[in-house]
Amino acid sequence: EDARRLPRAPSQLMRQFVRRLNPGARPSFTRALVPNGVRMRRRDLLTLGNLLLGVAVVISQPVAAPAQVRMEITPVFGVYAGIATFERPASGAPFDFAETLSQRNAVAVGLQATAWVGTGVGIRALGYTAASAVGPDNQDILDRKPVPANVTTFGLMALIPLSEFAARLRVYLSGGGALIVRGGDAYQGFSGTSSLGGIVGVGSQYRLSDRLSLQGDFQTVLYNLHLTDPTGVEYSSAFQTDLLAVLGVTIRLAPHPED
């Protein structure tokens, strides 16, 4: 009698519940859980299992980490040389003849900001200014002094390394677009002092430590100059070639352990 009063096992309770719902049906735990008319065949179960396994494999695959970006700042100084000339037309006044003018060589200072993507190409933004002057290209019999005329160059370039990124001496080619702005007393009141052009060059870095490198760049700026003076006289369009040779100390903002 004590044994009869013990609680029945869950399986016995489930069989009694199934008999009450469907007398004459064979008791089955699966049928009690699956609605009437829905049956899971073995092939369906295998398909579902393979699907879940495939999803698990995909999820478990490691996600590729984004490429490491190395940021560098380089203050630079060097030499600016304007090797092309442009012509000032005659104004029509007596004894005022056309003359050929040139931009004088000058010391240039500036700043470069470079981002190296992984161990591949780099992207560089730069700005240089040179306190130059404009004067006659030939010997001036009137001995006129050159007039101050600074040249400012902004550039956005792509850098293509020619050597291993981790090498102590790194060499690269560079090229991109440039904005050249002429100012100072010589261009006061002129229009057309801003020009768009291209900039190409070659450079190198010698790594001194994880954070410091010695850098040198030789760059050529190519553009077209078309000036109009304050009286409305237009200068002939002249193709210009500016040379820049600069040196600087590169400061790496976030050195990478692999460098």
Commentary on this structure:
The protein has four helices and twelve strands. The chain has an eight-stranded antiparallel beta barrel. Strands 2-3-6-7 form a four-stranded antiparallel β-sheet, with no helix packed on it. The longest helix has 19 residues. 21% of the residues are buried.
What is the share of helical residues? 10-25%
The tally of beta strands, per DSSP, is 12
- What kind of sheet is the major sheet? 8 strands, antiparallel, barrel
Apparent shape: elongated
Order of helices and strands: HHHHEEEEEEEEEEEE
- By DSSP (H or I, 4+ residues per run), the number of helices equals 4
Mean of all residue-level pLDDT scores: 79
Q: Whole-Å distance between the termini?
A: 84 Å
Runs in which pLDDT lies below 50 for 5 or more consecutive residues are 27-39
Assess the beta-strand content as a share of residues.
over 45%
Please state the CA-atom Rg, rounded to the nearest Å. 39 Å
Query: Which structural category do the helix and sheet elements fall into?
Result: alpha+beta
Spatial order of strands in the largest sheet: 1-4-5-8-9-10-11-12
Brief overview, please?
This protein is an alpha+beta fold and 259 residues long. Helices cover 15% and strands 46% of the residues.
Features:
alpha+beta; 46% strand; 8-stranded antiparallel beta barrel; 259 residues; elongated; 15% helix; 12 strands; 4-stranded antiparallel β-sheet
